[in-house]
Amino acid sequence: MIKAYAVHAAGEKLQPFSYEPGSLDRTEVEIAVEYCGICHSDLSMINNDWGNSQYPLVPGHEVVGTVAAMGEGVTKLELGQRVGLGWFSKSCMQCEWCLSGNHNLCQVDAEQTIVGRHGGFADRVRADEGWVIALPKELPAEKAGPLFCGGITVFNPIIELGIQPTDRVGVIGIGGLGHLAVSFLNYWGCEVTAFSSSPDKEQEARDMGADRFISSRDPEALKAAANSMDVIISTVNVSLEWSVYLAALRPKGKLHFVGVVPEAIPVQAFTLIGAQKSVSGSPLGSPATIEKMLTFAARHGIMPVTEEFAFDQVNEAIAHLEAGKARYRIVLKH
């Protein structure tokens, strides 16, 4: 029996919940959960903001724990090994995208850890071995959970866009995603500009590695940034005046979205054509990219800034996140 915390209808409080998971599939791994981060996506699923929540819903997709049980076909892990699990819990491993190493783009049997199944706000959680990733010993378990969603969300564009150490990169939003993006890009060697609507975050952003800080509420400062960046990564979930950020790009520049903006993004074709600019987006990353991110984070000591709550304080933790008070990621601890 797995003991968890579940919400039974949109917007309700989480309550103790238990369920019988059945027998392990051949390539399935059961993780004894030690820590689980809380992501804004958990809040979106709790509230059914995306229309795909199924109740009772057990959130949690930034899991760190140890391998407690394995199906007979699992070959790459060992019992007791410390591992992590993020947004994806399974992919088909046979389609064009999986076979090319882009498992996060699987179109056949992609399974998300908290969509239509129970996630990591629990003492145990299960996933296919392909998405259960060994945690480097240099990364502390209590800090690592947010890397498996927030971290890979902002690291994946570095790989996919081919960002170079000589590039000048902007990050919109210095929050749960953005603070990790700044750290990764700084150690990648880039010149980093932080865009934020909160002036009080300037020193923190600079401490994380930002070379410049621009208030997104200052029209003159935004205008002065024109033609100065090669890539801008947007981590926010609010609509902004995107033409200003497109203007901040140099020729061949890319405005890349990892935050879910609620409204359509208006773009004039001439804005893109004239200087060969582009607008793009990406979903997390493949298992191989997650491993690359963890290696890079371990090598440079990159860790999220976290606040810790006990699992039985899960509703207080959710309220803390919903109020916008998290600095910058919340982690639940057993």
TrEMBL record:
Its EC number is 1.1.1.2. The keyword Metal-binding applies. Keywords: Metal-binding, NADP, Oxidoreductase, Zinc. Residues 11-332 form the Enoyl reductase (ER) domain. GO terms for molecular function: alcohol dehydrogenase (NADP+) activity; zinc ion binding. It is an enzyme of class 1 (oxidoreductase). PROSITE patterns: ADH_ZINC. It comes from the Bacteria. Its cofactor is Zn(2+). Belongs to the zinc-containing alcohol dehydrogenase family. This is alcohol dehydrogenase (NADP(+)). It comes from Phormidesmis priestleyi.
